[in-house]
Design brief:
This protein has 11 helices and 10 strands. It is of the alpha+beta class.
């Protein structure tokens, strides 16, 4: 009898864990694009430089994990904006990864996980795997938001993991280890790749986070009121761009609190 490795998708489906995560999706972009996005009222699926030939729009589950290019002394247009989204309809999902695929392919994640084939971590065959990832590795939505994953030894004991589960063990280790400057929170955020433009409407936009300077534009709030009135802002500080992410996370959490999604 041949012994085969157990892939993440197979493991999740057989885990018999809850799959009912209630987390919104988030899309981050550089603020320089904010006004164009709002005028078009859509997030574009653009040519991907990781999965060549695909036009994709990237979303993360629950956390604004995507990072814009770092700047030591940014202007407001170099800072991130975040769209917090929820959909009543099915999205055309191309792939679902348990981490930032660009960081994986670019070898910005540890080699104990990038030594495996990235395609073995695509769990898009079943959208319920999003909730299963949260349940197996974090327990619930609140722990996922705070990146409080279970210890690898707890997971091994609960699911009787052995050497066939090497790819699952590598993911558990990645989630548990402290982030670093190279891959930060993107190492522990669930990524969705969408194959079409996402239209921004009052039905799917819960709120938007942006630098304060944009919300101060005369008439700005009125101009997007038909999309959302949940606008959270954060101030530009004389710090590098990475130092603003704590403010951004808190602003996103404020939108969640508004809808009773986070305490």
């Amino acid at each position: 009898m041949k012994i085969k490795p157990i892939r993440l998708n197979e493991f999740l489906i057989k885990s018999n864990t809850p799959s009912d995560s209630n987390l919104p999706l988030v899309h981050s972009a550089m603020a320089a694009r904010l006004l164009d996005i709002l005028n078009d009222e859509r997030l574009l699926a653009t040519p991907c430089n990781v999965f060549m030939g695909d036009n994709l729009c990237y979303l993360f589950v629950g956390r604004p994990s995507y990072k814009v290019p770092a700047s030591e002394n940014p202007s407001e247009w170099q800072l991130p904006v975040v769209f917090v989204l929820r959909f009543a309809h099915e999205l055309p999902i191309k792939r679902i990864f348990p981490f930032d695929s660009g960081a994986f392919v670019g070898k910005r994640l540890p080699n104990y996980i990038t030594c495996f084939d990235i395609n073995n971590y695509d769990v898009s065959v079943n959208k319920n795997n999003i909730g299963r990832l949260v349940s197996v590795f974090f327990g619930d939505d609140a722990r996922y938001i705070k990146r409080r994953s279970f210890d690898i030894f707890d997971i091994k004991e609960r699911y009787e993991i052995d050497a066939r589960h090497q790819e699952i063990a590598a993911l558990a280790r990645l989630y548990r280890e402290d982030s670093n400057a190279n891959f930060d929170d993107r190492a522990a955020a669930i990524e969705l790749q969408i194959t079409e433009d996402i239209y921004l409407t009052s039905q799917n936009v819960l709120g938007i986070v942006m630098p304060s300077e944009y919300a101060r534009i005369p008439g700005f709030r009125d101009s997007i009121f038909h999309i959302t009135d949940a606008i959270e802002t954060y101030d530009l500080h004389p710090l590098n761009s990475a130092s603003h992410y704590g403010l951004i996370y808190e602003a996103v959490n404020n939108i969640y609190r508004r809808y009773g999604l986070y305490k």
